[in-house]
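Hey everyone, long-time lurker, first post.

I ran two proteins through the pipeline my lab uses and got sequence/structure pairs for each. Pasting them in order. The first:
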Amino acid sequence: DPDAAYRLVSANLRLVVKVAMDFQKYWMQNFMDLIQEGNVGLVQATKKFDPYLGVKFSYYAAYWIRAYILKFIMDNWRLVKIGTTQAQRKLFFGLNKERKLLEAQGFKPEIKLLADRLNVKESEVIEMSQRMDNWDVSLEAPVRSDSEDQQKNFLPQGGPGIEDMVASQEIRDRLSETLEGMRNNLNEKEQVILQSRLLSDEPLTLQTIAEQFGISRERVRQIEANLLKKLKKQLERDMPDIQDLFSAENMVVRSSGKQ
């Protein structure tokens, strides 16, 4: 229903402004750019929203708005895209902030220290620093003085689609909130498994954790399985439409050759 969609969009324009303001410090050129991209995300959320999933529209729309604004900033911050992985997003938004924080505390913001604080590899800090410190090349600038072709016409296409980005970001955010809420109620073994396996980019093997606590691999596996059940129940309460996250094809624990 076009009329209903129009009313839904109109009623949530303030949400776009609110979300855009959170990103304003990362895009100083023109605040209206962020508003425009956020509005596009809001319209997309209106098209995709399923009222029968039990999720509030404002919550659902906020993820689409953030995704469109974030994608716009990252696509236009530098000619060479900064990237969309979790580590790259953390560096993009946190590197300069962490540098200033360390300097304010009297520390020299060395590569190793920054990498430790941001929980990323030193090589990633170096690469991101080089990208962020380079001069901008306008996407509107002509390739040659005698050509009307613009730089942006030659940018490679590809990368994750906006729907995939929104879905993965939504899951990460909800998992993060739920895990933080559960953390204080976990025993030592569960906390180690949570941090070192479920949340780690390079998860420890079952054997490593078993040796750490002097228990069997099978016992570690059982603790992990029980922890996933707790997480699933909590997520089903917080977000009813996320139940298939724990299906065989979508296990949270990273599948790899190492167990």
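...and the second, right after it:
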Amino acid sequence: MMLQQQGINLLHIATKWRKEGIVDELLNTNRWLARSLDSQQSSPLHIAAEEGWLEIAKKLSSFAPETCGWRNCQSMNPIHVAAMNGRVEILEELLPINCLAARERVYRGQTVLHLCVEYRQLGALKFLVGKLGDLVEAEDEDGETVLHWAVRSNQLEMIKYLAEGKTIIKNTMNSMGKTALKILQESPRDTTTNNYSEIETILLSLPDESEHELLKMSDTTMMVVVLIATVAFQATLSPPGGFWQDDSPTHKAGKAVMASTHPTKYQEFVAANMAAIVSSLIILFFMTTGLLSKFLLIRIFAYCAMVLSLIFIVTSYNISVTVIAPDKGTQPVLLRLIWIVVVIVMVIVMIMAFILGTSTKNEYSLVTNATPSIVESCATGPTVCFPGLWLVSITTDSYKVSENSLKVQSGIPISFDLKIKIKIVVCGCSDSDMGEGAVICRARCYRVTCDYTLQMRFWKF
């Protein structure tokens, strides 16, 4: 009667006491017993995971694999139970059956890795980090990662292991604004183990957020750089217009058509693609040698090379479009204007991205004071101009920088308000604007006016 009140059946008891023969007989007689729950909402698989009975766990999971994700009254599934008891062999068996169950959170948003740290199960932690490495950065409801937990409980070996992975950020703060180092400094000194200085040294050696982001972005950056180099290489081998298929007095078979019809633009096209390839190879060299993570100057140089490679690719694309587009009216002028605006925007955005990325914390906003306008205006008199020659003028009418500083609890923010008004004027003549043999035309001019206020706030700790 007492067993019935507790919801325990013979399979629960046989599993608890590792009676494999009885477990086999019960499962063969009534396979639904594997899905039965006791008063704690624990299935027989929960019990096998807690005790570490591997063979019984295999049989139970084969009869009822869905129980791998069932939660007991403590909101734990069998994978959680195995982790908190250090049953690595059970984890090896259950994880392939239901990997998503290992990612489920328990009370207060803790992950399975938090449980390993809480119950001091280093072996289970090592196994799970190898399978679910992204959970190392996961935070609970208090904003604390496994590193916060390990430091608070003074677990030196776990801290050493987590530091070896280089995926932990030393300045990650919890909801109270405390880093792992701050928690260590506020905790009472352990005079028996004397781990304070060693843990402090490990925490100080961890990468900060900017270094961590650099490591995370390395694979993506390499993929982008390789893509740019591939596009530039392919564009050089497949120029706009293709290749001549026959020989004639003016050209030879296999030569680029663009080299004969637009020799100047072809030279610019090849030079832009070559520069893009060289810039990409420079970045690849720095990434493969590991110099990016060691020297700030090299990171700045590589960042400039990335900006140049993108600009050269855009330039190559603009030349291609200009060559294959029909030369009618103002179209070449507009294409050149669009190219100039795109390049300027790219440079500004990338410079700002680099500046903002170097601060530990930042806020910024862009306020449009006036809608950007493009106005066509013709020169008042004849202007000496040749086809394909464009004159570009960029002027800054006004700018204003205001600086304010405000001391706060987490650091000192420095705010800047940058107000700038830019005018871009592009003048030139297209082939259709000029008669045959003419060297003087009334140039078409376009004026772009931009008026913005960029508000930035940087936190320096």
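Reply from user beta_strand_b:
Welcome! Quick read of the second one: The longest strand covers residues 361-378. Residues 360-461 form one domain.
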